[in-house]
TrEMBL record:
Residue ranges occupied by any D-serine dehydratase-like domain in the UniProt entry: 339-433
Residue ranges of the TM segments: none
Listed InterPro entries: D-amino_acid_metab_enzyme, D-ser_dehydrat-like_dom, D-ser_dehydrat-like_sf, PLP-binding_barrel
Name the record gives this protein: Amino acid deaminase
Biological source species: Kitasatospora xanthocidica
């Protein structure tokens, strides 16, 4: 087994320079491009609720060659705007490059290898994931740099991971630990599995009332000391999630986030002498709501390699992230664009100011705000009118106060809030050239794996 204090193993796979990361832009570091491309050869059928009957029996590639448009798709429906996706990927990549930080976007937002590839092609350093099933999917598509933003304590899962690390010397993996007990359990399971390479871990710092993470720097230092004593683990840095500290962009919320990030920076200083010689330790934080504060507070820490984990930015939204995104908080127009849209048909008008649409909780996200009616296809604009969605059932949306703008049979475009609970409802999502076009063309079909 490698000495956990040496500078070998896969650590350099995570902590090369940001300049090297962005120099690879356009080649897609660490993903099996052939496996992603092969998804276009997958036959379509009734298992994919977005796939119309005329596509059944054809591969995605063959169906797209027929030139389908939005009109050929049924409702309920969720689509991605291809132009908005491209814009968001480029915008975030450029922002990180200028800030001098690495980006390992949270892949759990989309669980879509084709979108991970787009992010890697734009210069992302790796992919972040939330649990072991997601890691296995990423490995099936050849992702070579994975940050697991969670603790991995499952003995069977650790045995599988040990095998992956032993079989692929280029596989760079980071996990989290937040207690002495979690260190003990990981070490015990990895010893039992006969691990050949140490698993690199980040000590997670949490906050009062937050999610996981050691409560306070003293507890985190104890966790780091336990890692240094465990021969199957290697201390690679620190991590945390500031999004658990606040949920808005109020002065109080931003101050709480800054306070937490400063504690994370102080922890980095306390552990400076504990790291193995070689590449600088990883300091990782940053969702899609406060990544600007992460850069302001952590990017200039001495001897560190800052890794953001923002994920929702790729699709952005017309709700929660539209209001809290760092690139929109100044009151100006956000550089990110909402790429997700729901499409639903009016199927009933049982009351004068009530219309029922054929999309509900099984089709659209609702945990961070209800969908917003934007326009009627071929008809009126609804943004800025009194029309609103007031509730969702499993398969229906309640549209109120649309007047005569939404007759029975009309198809409405809906903006959605919180992409993380949108992608999981669809195994295949059509990509449109532009959702604003009079007759959008279907240019792709994004496969998700949840």
């Amino acid at each position: 087994m490698c000495n956990p204090r040496c500078a070998c193993c896969n650590l350099c796979g995570w902590r090369n320079t940001v300049e090297q990361t962005f120099a690879s832009s356009g080649t897609g570091p660490g993903i099996a491009r052939g496996a992603v491309a092969a998804l276009a050869d997958e036959p379509l059928d009734w298992r994919f609720k977005a796939a119309p009957p005329q596509s059944w029996g054809r591969s995605t590639r063959e169906w797209l060659a027929t030139g389908p448009t939005l009109s050929s798709l049924g409702t309920p429906l969720l689509t991605l705007d291809g132009a908005a996706l491209d814009h968001n990927v480029r915008t975030m990549a450029d922002w990180c490059a200028k800030a001098g930080v690495a980006l390992a976007p949270h892949g759990k937002t989309t669980m879509a290898p084709a979108l991970w590839q787009a992010q890697l092609d734009a210069g992302s350093h790796g992919i972040t994931l939330a649990n072991l099933p997601q890691v296995r999917i990423a490995r099936a598509f050849g992702v070579q740099r994975i940050l697991l933003a969670n603790a991995l304590l499952d003995p069977a899962g650790l045995a599988w991971l040990a095998g992956e690390l032993a079989a692929d010397p280029d596989f760079a993996f980071l996990s989290w630990v937040d207690s002495v007990e979690s260190v003990r359990l990981m070490d015990e399971a990895l010893r039992a599995a006969g691990a050949e390479r140490p698993v690199e871990v980040l000590v997670e710092l949490g906050g009062p009332g937050g999610r996981t993470g050691a409560r306070g720097a003293d507890a985190a230092v104890e966790v780091a000391a336990a890692v240094l004593r465990a021969p199957t683990l290697r201390l690679a840095g620190i991590g945390g999630y500031e999004g658990a500290i606040a949920h808005d962009a109020s002065a109080e919320g931003l101050a709480a986030v800054r306070g937490y990030l400063r504690e994370l920076g102080e922890l980095h200083g306390r552990l400076a002498s504990a790291y193995p010689d070689g590449a600088p330790p990883v300091v990782s934080a940053g969702g899609s709501a406060y990544f600007d504060l992460v850069v302001e507070e952590l990017a200039n820490l001495p001897e560190s390699f800052t890794v953001l984990r923002s994920g929702a930015y790729i699709a952005h939204d017309d709700g929660f992230y539209r209001g809290i995104s760092p690139l929109a908080r100044d009151g100006g127009r956000t550089p990110f664009r909402g790429a997700l849209h729901g499409w639903a048909r009016v199927v009933s008008r049982p009351e004068p100011q009530l219309a029922l649409l054929d999309a509900g909780k099984r089709d659209l996200p609702f945990d961070e705000g209800l969908p917003e009616p934007q326009r009627v296809r071929g008809g009126a604009e609804l943004t800025g009118t009194a029309a609103r969605i007031t509730a969702l059932n499993d398969q229906h949306a309640f549209l109120r106060d649309a007047g005569d703008l939404a007759p029975i049979g009309a198809v409405l475009r809906l903006g959605v809030s919180h992409p993380c609970t949108a992608f999981d409802k669809w195994t295949a999502i059509p990509v449109l050239d532009s959702a604003d076009a009079a007759e959008p063309k279907v240019t792709g079909l994004v496969r998700t794996f949840f």
